[in-house]
C-alpha cells in the first residue's frame, strides 16, 4: 500500500509515473516538524535502513549522514555525504517496516542515526515535497511497489552485456584498432570500446576530431564487422565558439540556462567556457536529444552522458571575483588565518555552491533557480537522449548510461558509478552499492572496473573482474595519467581471458535475470537480508550478494587474501571456476565457512533447486549461442528455470516467445517448454 502526502507546493519531477491520490490525514510512522519541515523517526537498536541508491558506506545505511546533492567529486571516501546522484528512497526495517520516498529535487539531508544513534531525521533545504510511504509484507514487496510506481527500468541492447574497454582517452583510430587487436589476438572477449572526450574536436559535443578519425562512419563499420561497438561520451556543457552550430543554435533559440539578468550563464568545463542546455525545459531537451542523431547516423549505437551534475570547473563571474580578491593577498604575510582563507578561495573555485545559485531554468513554464532543482539536471540530460531515441529509433535499443541521476532516470538509461579509485575499498563499495541502486530501478549499472583514478595492480584488477562479471555494465575504465589497465598488459593474460570468458558463459543467466528483473520490477542484486528475512545473521552480511534467483556471490576484496569467510543462509552448492570448463564443486552446509579462493578463481554458490544456464562462451555477445546450453544445477527435488532470450535489439519485451521454461527433475531429466527449440545438456 502506498500513501502520498504533500507538503507545500512541490515541483513536478516526473519521477512517479503511476500517480497516487494524496492523503490528507496524519502521516503514519514519522514525526513531522512544525516550524521547519523535517521528518523524524525513532529506531530501536535492531532497526536497519536500506536504500539511498548511489552512496557511500554500507548496505545498511544506518549511522551516517547522507545529503542528496548531485556532486562531481572523485574522492569517494567514507567521510563524504554525497556522490553523483539523488536517490531519496529508503526502507526502514525494525519494529516497523515501511518505505519512504521523498520526491524533492533540491538538497535533502538524511541523518540516519548520525547525530543521535536511534534518531532518523530527514530535512529538505526548503518546503515543498511529496512524501510516499509504502507498506508491504516484505522488503522485496516494498521495493516492487515503489518500482511499479516509478515505471519500468531501462533495458540495454544485448551487446552491452559484453565486456567493454575504456580509457580516458584513446586518441585516434589506430589506438582503438590496437586495443581491439590485442584482445582478439589473446582470445579475450570484447564487445565495446569507449571513446572519451578526445574523440571530439576540442571537446565540442556531437563533433568528431577528423584528424584522429578521418572517416568515422567507415571506422565504426570496420569495428562492427569485428562485433565491436564504439561508445562515445557526451558532456553536459556546450562550448562557446562562434561558428559551432550547436552553440549558435542554442543561443538563437534561447535554450541555454540563464543568469538572473536573462543572459546565458557562462561556466567552464573541458572546452573552457560553456553554456548548459536547459535540460529542464522540454523544448531545449528535445533539441539537445535530437543532436544524438549526428552520431547515430554514423553508425553509433550507444552513449555515456557525463559531467551532468552539472560539473562546473569555474563560472566566469566567480572567477573574476576570485581574481579580484586575490589582489588583497599580494605583498601580505600569509599567516595561518590568511593561508586558510587563501586556500578556500582558490580551492573552492570548482563546483562552488554559490555557482549553482547563479543560473536559472525554464521549468513547467516558470523561471526556477538551479539550486532548487539541482538534482534533476543529469536525469533530464539522459531523458533528452532517451526520449529522442524513442522517436528516432522506436524499434531499436540504444545503449545509454549517465553519471548523474535522480529517481525516474532509470527509465531512460543506466548509470556508471563515477570516478572511483584503484582501491580495494572501492571494490567493496562497488559490491555494496549495487543492491541499493537496484532498489531505485537502476539495473543497468557497474563501476569502473580496476578503478578510474590511481594506479591499479594486477591482483586488484583480477579480483574486481571476478565481481564485475556479474554487473550488467561490465567496463574497464581508467583515467588519463594512471597505469594502463587493459587486461592484456598484465602478466597472467590467460587468467584474465578465462575470467572474462566466464561472464560470456554465464550470459544466458545474467541476461535472463536482468530482463526478468526489469520486466517484473524486481532486483537483480539483493542483500541476503532481503531473501532470508528470518535469518538474523543474513541481515548482518554486507559483502555477499544474491544475483537473480539462483546465485549467490561472495567476492574477495582484500589484497593478498587467499580466500574468505562466507556465510551460507542455507545449504548451497559451491562452484569454483578457473575457466568455463575447469571447475570444482562442493556442497556446503548452512553456516560459516572459510573458503579458499585462488587469485584467478571465480566462485559462485547455487541455491537449492535452481539451475544456472550456461553457454560455451564466445569472443563477443553475438557469438554466444543461447540455443545450446549447459545447466549448472543443484537439484534436490525439481528445478524450474525461466530462460529469457530475444534478438537483443527489439523492444517487444513482453512477447511470450522470449521465454522458455526449463524443468529439471530429480533424476536429471530435462524438459523445455517454449516456442523456440533448444538443445540442452545437463552437468553436475
Ligand atoms: C569524468 C568522468 C570520467 C571521464 C573523464 C573525462 O571524470 O567521470 O569517466 O573519463 O571525465 O571525460
Automatic annotation (TrEMBL):
Keywords: Glycosidase, Hydrolase
Protein name as it appears in the record: Alpha-xylosidase
Domain Glycosyl hydrolase family 31 C-terminal per the UniProt entry, residue ranges: 523-612
Residues annotated as domain Glycoside hydrolase family 31 TIM barrel: 155-512
Listed SUPFAM superfamilies: (Trans)glycosidases, Galactose mutarotase-like, Glycosyl hydrolase domain
Domain Glycoside hydrolase family 31 N-terminal: 33-111
Protein species of origin: Robinsoniella peoriensis
Molecular function via GO: alpha-D-xyloside xylohydrolase; carbohydrate binding
Group of enzyme by EC: hydrolase
EC code: 3.2.1.177
Lineage of origin: Bacteria, Bacillati, Bacillota, Clostridia, Lachnospirales
Amino acid at each position: 500500500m502506498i500513501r502520498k502526502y504533500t507538503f507545500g507546493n512541490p515541483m513536478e519531477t516526473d519521477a512517479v509515473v503511476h500517480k497516487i491520490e494524496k492523503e490528507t490525514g496524519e502521516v503514519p510512522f514519522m514525526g513531522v516538524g512544525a516550524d521547519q519541515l523535517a521528518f523524524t523517526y525513532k529506531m530501536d537498536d535492531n532497526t536497519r535502513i536500506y536504500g539511498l541508491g548511489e552512496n557511500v558506506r554500507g548496505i545498511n545505511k544506518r549511522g551516517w549522514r547522507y545529503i542528496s546533492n548531485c556532486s562531481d567529486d572523485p574522492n569517494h571516501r567514507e567521510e563524504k555525504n554525497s556522490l553523483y546522484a539523488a536517490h531519496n528512497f529508503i526502507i526502514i526495517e525494525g519494529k516497523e517496516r515501511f518505505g519512504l520516498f521523498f520526491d524533492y529535487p533540491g538538497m535533502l539531508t538524511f541523518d540516519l542515526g548520525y547525530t543521535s544513534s536511534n534518531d532518523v531525521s530527514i530535512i529538505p533545504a526548503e518546503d515543498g515535497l511529496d512524501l510516499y510511504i509504502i507498506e508491504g509484507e516484505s522488503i522485496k514487496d516494498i521495493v516492487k511497489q515503489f518500482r511499479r510506481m516509478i515505471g519500468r527500468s531501462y533495458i540495454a541492447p544485448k551487446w552491452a552485456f559484453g565486456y567493454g574497454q575504456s580509457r580516458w582517452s584513446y586518441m585516434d583510430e589506430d589506438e582503438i584498432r590496437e586495443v581491439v587487436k590485442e584482445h582478439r589476438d589473446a582470445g579475450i572477449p570484447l564487445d565495446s570500446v569507449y571513446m572519451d572526450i578526445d574523440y571530439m574536436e576540442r571537446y565540442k559535443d556531437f563533433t568528431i576530431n577528423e584528424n584522429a578519425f578521418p572517416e568515422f562512419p567507415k571506422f565504426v563499420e570496420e569495428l562492427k564487422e569485428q562485433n565491436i561497438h564504439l561508445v562515445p561520451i557526451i558532456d553536459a556543457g556546450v562550448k562557446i565558439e562562434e561558428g559551432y552550430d550547436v552553440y549558435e543554435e542554442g543561443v538563437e533559440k534561447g535554450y541555454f540556462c540563464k543568469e538572473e539578468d536573462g543572459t546565458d550563464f557562462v561556466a567552464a568545463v573541458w572546452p573552457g567556457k560553456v553554456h548548459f542546455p536547459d535540460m529542464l525545459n522540454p523544448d531545449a531537451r528535445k533539441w539537445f536529444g535530437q543532436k544524438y542523431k549526428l552520431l547515430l547516423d554514423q553508425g553509433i549505437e550507444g552513449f555515456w552522458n557525463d559531467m551532468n551534475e552539472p560539473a562546473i570547473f569555474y563560472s566566469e563571474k566567480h572567477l573574476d571575483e576570485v581574481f579580484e580578491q586575490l589582489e588583497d593577498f599580494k605583498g601580505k604575510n600569509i599567516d595561518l588565518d590568511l593561508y586558510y582563507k587563501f586556500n578556500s578561495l582558490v580551492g573552492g573555485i570548482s563546483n562552488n555552491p554559490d555557482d549553482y545559485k547563479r543560473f536559472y531554468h525554464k521549468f513547467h513554464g516558470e523561471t526556477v533557480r538551479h539550486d532548487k532543482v539541482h538534482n534533476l539536471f543529469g536525469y533530464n540530460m539522459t531523458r533528452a537522449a532517451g526520449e529522442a531515441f524513442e522517436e528516432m529509433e522506436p524499434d531499436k535499443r540504444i545503449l545509454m548510461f549517465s553519471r548523474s541521476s535522480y529517481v525516474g532516470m532509470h527509465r531512460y538509461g543506466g548509470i556508471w558509478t563515477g570516478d572511483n579509485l584503484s582501491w580495494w575499498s572501492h571494490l567493496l563499495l562497488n559490491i555494496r552499492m549495487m543492491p541499493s541502486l537496484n532498489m531505485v530501478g537502476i539495473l543497468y549499472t557497474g563501476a569502473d572496473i580496476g578503478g578510474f583514478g590511481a594506479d591499479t595492480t594486477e591482483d586488484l584488477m583480477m579480483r574486481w573482474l571476478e565481481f564485475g562479471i556479474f554487473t550488467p555494465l561490465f567496463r574497464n575504465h581508467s583515467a588519463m595519467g594512471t597505469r594502463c589497465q587493459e587486461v592484456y598488459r598484465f602478466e597472467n593474460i590467460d587468467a584474465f581471458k578465462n575470467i572474462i570468458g566466464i561472464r560470456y558463459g554465464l550470459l544466458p543467466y545474467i541476461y535472463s535475470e536482468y530482463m526478468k528483473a526489469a520486466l517484473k520490477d524486481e532486483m537483480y542484486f539483493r542483500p541476503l537480508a532481503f531473501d532470508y528475512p528470518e535469518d538474523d545473521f543474513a541481515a548482518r552480511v554486507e559483502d555477499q550478494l544474491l544475483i537473480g534467483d539462483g546465485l549467490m556471490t561472495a567476492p574477495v576484496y582484500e589484497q593478498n587474501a587467499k580466500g574468505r569467510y562466507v556465510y551460507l543462509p542455507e545449504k548451497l552448492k559451491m562452484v569454483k571456476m578457473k575457466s568455463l570448463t575447469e571447475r570444482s564443486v562442493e556442497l556446503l552446509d548452512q553456516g560459516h565457512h572459510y573458503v579458499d579462493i585462488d587469485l584467478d578463481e571465480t566462485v559462485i554458490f547455487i541455491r537449492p533447486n535452481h539451475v544456472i544456464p550456461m553457454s560455451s562462451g564466445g569472443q563477443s555477445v553475438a557469438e554466444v549461442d543461447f540455443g545450446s546450453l549447459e545447466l549448472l544445477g543443484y537439484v534436490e527435488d525439481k528445478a524450474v528455470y525461466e530462460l529469457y532470450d530475444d534478438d537483443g535489439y527489439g523492444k517487444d519485451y513482453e512477447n511470450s516467445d522470449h521465454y522458455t521454461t526449463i524443468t529439471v527433475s530429480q533424476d536429471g531429466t530435462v524438459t523445455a517448454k517454449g516456442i523456440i527449440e533448444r538443445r540442452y545438456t545437463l552437468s553436475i
